[in-house]
Design brief:
Helix content is 36%, strand content 29%. It is of the alpha+beta class. Strands 4-2-1-3-5 form a five-stranded antiparallel β-sheet. A hairpin with a 3-residue loop joins β1 and β2. The mean pLDDT is 95.
Length: 106
């Protein structure tokens, strides 16, 4: 709660050319390092990053996860519950476009 107005990031990573991971973090560099370690691969590419305040990003992340799971687009990566089938990308981006978050240029 005390960080609800801090800048936060929503990310979409493409992992092992098999699935995407949709999550949030306050620190993108640290998160990438953790994802590579947790997933056991270095084959991790950042597809999209968006930013806003933590409260907005957290709510959007939860909304996207729920909507993708509702239509059975979750993917069993064996290490995270935030992984989704590649075909979920279009719906995820549509949900993001309906929000107030801003894309981050690379």
């Amino acid at each position: 709660p005390e960080r609800k107005l801090d800048t936060d990031f929503l990310y979409i990573y493409y992992i092992n050319k098999a699935y995407i991971k949709i999550g949030r973090t306050f620190n993108m560099k640290q998160r990438l390092f953790r994802i590579k370690g947790d997933s056991g691969t270095t084959n991790v590419d950042l597809l999209h990053t968006f930013s806003s305040d933590h409260q907005t990003i957290y709510g959007l992340e939860q909304h996207i996860h729920a909507e993708l799971r509702k239509v059975n687009l979750d993917y069993d990566s064996g290490w995270t519950s935030e992984s989704f089938k590649l075909e979920s990308l279009d719906l995820a981006l549509k949900l993001i476009s309906e929000s107030s978050v801003e894309p981050v240029s690379s």
